[in-house]
Amino acid sequence: MFYIFCPYCGEHREEEEFHPKGQAHISRPEDPEATSDEEWGDYLFFRDNPRGVHHELWVHAVGCRKFFNITRHTVSYEILEVYKMGEQPSITAENYAAQQGAASADKERNASQAKHQEGVRA
Amino acid sequence: MSQPNRLKTGGRVDRSRQLTFTFNGQRYQGHPGDTLASALLANGVDIVNRSFKYSRPRGIVAAGAEEPNGIVQLGSTEAGQVPNVRATQQALYQDLSARSTNGWPNVQRDLMGLVGKLGGQFMPPGFYYKTFMAPASMWLTYEKYIRKAAGLGRSPTENDPDIYDHRHQHCDVLVVGAGPAGLSAALAAGRAGARVILVDEQEEMGGSLLSSRESIDDAPATTWVEKVLKELSELEHVTLMPRTTANGYHDHNFVTLHERCTEHLADLAPRAGGRRQVRSRMHRVRAGQVVLASGAHERPLVYAGNDVPGNMLAGAVSTYIRRYGVAPGNRLVLSTSNDDGYRSALDWAEAGREVVAIADARQNPDGELVEQARAKGIQIIAGSAVIEARGDKRVAAAKVAKIDIEGFKVTGPVEELACDTIASSGGFSPVVHLASHTGSRPTWNEELLGFMPSPVKGMTPTGGAHGVYALGQVIADGFKAGSAAGEACGFERQDASLPKVDERREGAAVALYQVPHQKATLRGPKQFVDMQNDVTAAAIELATREGFESIEHVKRYTAMGFGTDQGKLGNINGMAIAARCLGRTIPEVGTTVFRPNYTPVSFGAIVGRHCGELFDPERYTAMHQWHVENGAEFEDVGQWKRPWYFPRTVNGKTETMHEAVARECSAVREKVGILDASTLGKIDIQGPDAREFLGRVYTNKWAKLAPGRVRYGLMCKDDGMVFDDGTTSCLAENHFLMTTSTGGAATVLEWLEIWHQTEWPELDVYFNSVTDHWATMTVTGPEARKLMAELTDIDLDKDSFKFMDWREGKVAGVPARVFRISFTGELAYEINVQANYAMHVWKKLFAHGDKYGLTPYGTETMHVLRAEKGFIIAGQDTDGSVTPEDLGMHWAIGYDKPNSWIGKRALTRPDTKRTDRKQMVGLKPKDPSVVLEEGAQIVFDPNHAIPMPMKGHVTSSYYSPTLQSGFALAVVMGGHQKMGETVYLPMVDGQVHEAEIVSPIFLDPKGERQNV
C-alpha cells in the first residue's frame, strides 16, 4: 500500500485516501470537432504503459478532493515526485535514466540478472 | 517411560512443572518453555505426519518457521480448530490437543502410504495434470478426492468465538527479528531516541543466542540477551513485541505484523476481567526504516531417504538440546559441508549421547570447531557425505561414502553406520523472504553461497539476513544498521560500544546441495528437496528434461516452494539441482519470488473486527427507525440500507414480496404512496460559471433554465456512453442542486471535480456533496396534492406550481424545498427537508395521509413503477456501452450547443453511428404470466444452430399489477426499427420465451398522469 504525499494537504497519507485516475498530462483536444476519428480515438483510449518512470494523475478522494500528479517508478513503485495540477514534472524517464547512469555498473549487473530472472509472476 | 529423550539438565524449560497434552489422541507430558515439537521429541514421537503426495512417514526436521513436516491441526473443540500450525512454533500449554493433518486411518498405519510406495514411480511431477485432466468433465470429481487426500488441515465448521483486532502504527525504525543482530540494531536506534518496534516470531526474544555455545562478555549469550532486553524495555520509545511475525513487507515500508496474544495459553482466548481477551492482532505498521534482522535458515543436504524420521537439520539438533533440553535420539551421524554443522555433534556429545561419525564433504576440514570435535575423539570422515539414510519409520543407519562434488559422483566404497539420527548442514540461506515481498529479486553471492536481499528503499538487511554469520560481526553489523536507520530518520548516529565476543577461526565451506548417489537421480531412491510438497530431486530433473527451463515454470510444474512452506527449506537446493541439470549456474537459473505471508495467518486476524455487522459501514436515512418499526424488508444499495418493500400481516399471514409490491403499486397508481428517496446523491453547485459548467457535463441545454425550474439531464463520458442521469434544479442564477443515482453520488462528484480541476480550472464553480444534509421523501399518486395541501404553505395550483418546477416553503412547519419531479409517472412531490427534521415530517405525512390511503413503498415498487414508464436506471439499463441515442433519448441531446460538451465528439464516430447498435426497447412476453429473466439473452431465430447469434439482452424485468402482465426493458440490435417484431429468449432449462418488441413506455406515453 502506497504512502502518498498530498501536495495540497502537505502531509503523507495512506493510499486508501486516494484514487488513481490514470496517466497524467492527457489533455482534451482544444477543439474536439476538429479532430479526426483517429486522433479522438487516441485521446480516448490509448495510454502509455512504461516500465520505469510514469506520470500519473491521483486525487485525494477522501481528503482535500484535490487532483495532483505523481511520478512513480512502475518497477520499484517508488514515488519519485508529486506535483500540483498545472505543474510539470522535474523527473522524467529521460533525465532519470541519465541520473541513474552514474550508477551504471550496478544497473548493468541488475539488468543481466533480470534477463535470467525474468519469469512468470503469479 | 515419560519423556525418554529429555535431558536431566540444561535448556530453558521449567522442569518443576508438568504440562499434559494430547497428540493424535495419545497423552504426553512436557514442560513450560517447550514447543509442541520439542515436547513430542522429548517423548520419542518420531512420526508426526504423513507426506502430502507419497504419504511417507515424516518427523520433525527443524526447530522454527522452516519446519516442513510438523504441521498439525490444533484444537480440542470444533470452534477452536486451527489448521496449519507448525509444531515447532506452537508453545506447549496445559491440555493442548493436536492431530496430524495427513494420514488415514492414522499416521502409524497409513493406507495411503501403500499407494505412495507402490505408486511412487507412477506419480511424477505433473501427475495430476497428466492423469486426471481427461475427460475434462470428470475433473471436479477427481479434485474432490485429491483435495481430501492432500489437505493440510481443515477449517472449523463452527463459528470462531474468539475476537481479533487490528492496530495501525507508525514508527521510525521497525526491527524484524530479535536475535543478536536485531537486538543490537534496536539498541542503537533506541538509544538514539528513535521510535522503535522490535518484533520477533518466537516465544522469547534472543533468536540463535538462546541456543548458542558462544559467550558474550565472558558470560553465556543469554545473559547479554537479558541485559539488552532490560535496557530496551526501559526506553520509552521502544516497543518490544514477542510472538509477533512480520508476515508481509509491502510498498513504501508498510509491514503487516501478526501478534499472537493468547495462542500460547489455551485453545480459545482465556477471559480476563470477565471479557474474552483478543486472541491475535494484526498490526499495520508504516515504518520510516526497516531493519531486516530475520536471520538465516540452515539448508539441509539432499540425499536419499533424507525424509525418514530422524533426519534433522544440524542447527535444529543443537536447538533442541541446548534450548529445550531434549536429545532427539541416541546415535548421531552428522553430514556437513561447513564448520557450523559441527556444533550439533559437540552438543550431542556433551549431552552424553554417542556421535557415531561426522561425514565432512571437505577434503581438509580444519576450523576451530573441527579441532574441538577431534579433541573429543569423534570420528571425522573427510571428503564424504551421507549418501543415503536407511530406515522406515525411523533412521536405522547412514550410508556414508567419499564423494566428488564437482563430478557429482560417489568415488569410494559405501560404509553403513548404524545410528538413529542424521543431522545435516549445507550452509545457510539468508531469510530474504520479506525483502522479496516488495518485488526485489534476491541476488546470488558466490562467496557466501546464498541469495542476498537486493536493495529496497528504506530497508537495511543485517546479520544472518545480510550474510554475516560470525557472532561478533553480527552484533556489530546490527548496531551499524540500527544506528544508520535512526540517522535516516533524523536521529544522531550512535557510537558502538560492542560487547566482547571471541573470534573463532573458521574453515571455508564447500558448495554442496544434492549429494550424489551410486545410482542416477532418476533411478535411485528418493531424495527430497521440498518435504512439505513432496518434491524430489528426480522431479526437478524430470521437469528440466521435459523442457521446463525457467525456475518459475519448474516451481509450478513440481509445486516446489508452494503453499505455506514458501520454499524456506528447499528452494535453494531446488535451484541448485535445476542449475546442475540445465548446465547453468545458480544465479543464471535465478530464484522464484517469495510471497506474503511468511507463515500462515489466521483469517480471524486478517478480518479483525470487520465481520458480522461491522463488515462494512451501513448508512441509514433519517427515517430508518420508522422503516424498521413498520416491518420493512431492507435492500443493500451500496452501503445504504433502503426499504425494499413493506410486507403487511393480515390475520397472521404475512404478505410475500409479490403481494406487497402489487399492493404498493396499486396504492401509487390509484391513491398515494410515499418513498424514502434520501439516498439519491445530491450535489450543491455554486458559482458564476455553474451554468456554463452544467452545459459542458450534461448532454442537453442549461443556458435558459430559470430559477424555480428543474431539468432532467444525461451525463456521458467522453466516449459518448451514458454513465449517470438525474435532475438538476436551478435554485438561483448561480446556484444549482444536482441529483445523481444512489450508487453514483461519489463517482459523479469526483467526475465534476476532475473536469473542473484538470480541464477547466478557469471556470468559477464549486461543488459540495449534500446527500446527507437533505432527507428526501417522494409523495406520489393521484391524491398527492390533497395530502400536500394539508401540510404546506406552498401554492400547489397546477398552473403556478407546474410539473418540473420547484418551490421553497414550509412542509409540516419546517423549511422545505419541494420538487415536482416524478419517477413514477404519477403526480409527485419530492420534499427535501433538513435531515434532522425528516422524521417529524414523515410522521406528519402519515398522520394526515391515512385518510387518502398513504402507503409506504420500497425500492422494488419504485422499480416496477419507473420501468412501466420506461425510465432508466443508469448502471442497470446501461452498462457503459449505451449512448443517449441508443436509449432513444434524442430529445436530451443538444447537438447545437456552442461548446463541445463531454461525449459529443464521440457520438459522431462511425461506431456510435451504427444503426445495428443495441438499442433500448420494451419487451412484452407473449405469455403475460412470464417474467423474463434479467440478463437473459435475446435471439431472432430460436432454431438457429448453437451457438446462436445473440442479439440483445434483458436489462430490467418485472410483473406489472397495473398491466396485469410481465414486462421488460431490453437492449436489442437495431431495436428501434423492430417495433412489433417477435424475439426469442432461450433459457437454461430449455424453455424458449417469446416476446414482442414494443415501446419502452408501457404506461401513459403522453405523460398526462404526472402533468395534472
TrEMBL record, chain A:
Annotated stretches, region: Disordered: 17-36, 97-122
Name the record gives this protein: Sarcosine oxidase subunit delta
GO molecular function, one term: sarcosine oxidase activity
Pfam families noted in UniProt: SoxD (PF04267)
Membrane-crossing residue ranges in chain numbering: none
Coiled-coil ranges (or none): none
Matching InterPro entries: SoxD, SoxD_sf
Compositional bias per record (Basic and acidic residues), positions renumbered to this chain: 105-122
Gene Ontology biological process: tetrahydrofolate metabolic process
Automatic annotation (TrEMBL), chain B:
Residue stretches making up the Aminomethyltransferase C-terminal domain: 918-1004
Pfam families referenced in this protein's UniProt entry, alphabetically: Fer2_4 (PF13510), GCV_T (PF01571), GCV_T_C (PF08669), Pyr_redox_2 (PF07992), SO_alpha_A3 (PF17806)
UniProt entry tagged with the keyword Oxidoreductase: yes
Record-annotated GCVT N-terminal domain positions: 623-897
Gene Ontology terms describing biological process: tetrahydrofolate metabolic process
Domain FAD/NAD(P)-binding residue range list: 172-478
Keyword vocabulary terms for this entry: Aminotransferase, Oxidoreductase, Transferase
Domain SoxA A3: 525-606
InterPro entries named in the record: 2Fe-2S-bd_N, BFD-like_2Fe2S-bd_dom_sf, FAD/NAD-bd_sf, FAD/NAD-binding_dom, GcvT/YgfZ/DmdA, GcvT/YgfZ_C, GcvT_C, GCVT_N
GO molecular function annotation: sarcosine oxidase activity; transaminase activity
NCBIfam families registered for this protein in UniProt: soxA
Family in the record: Belongs to the GcvT family.
Protein name per UniProt: Sarcosine oxidase subunit alpha
Annotated organism of origin: Onishia taeanensis
Lineage: Bacteria, Pseudomonadati, Pseudomonadota, Gammaproteobacteria, Oceanospirillales
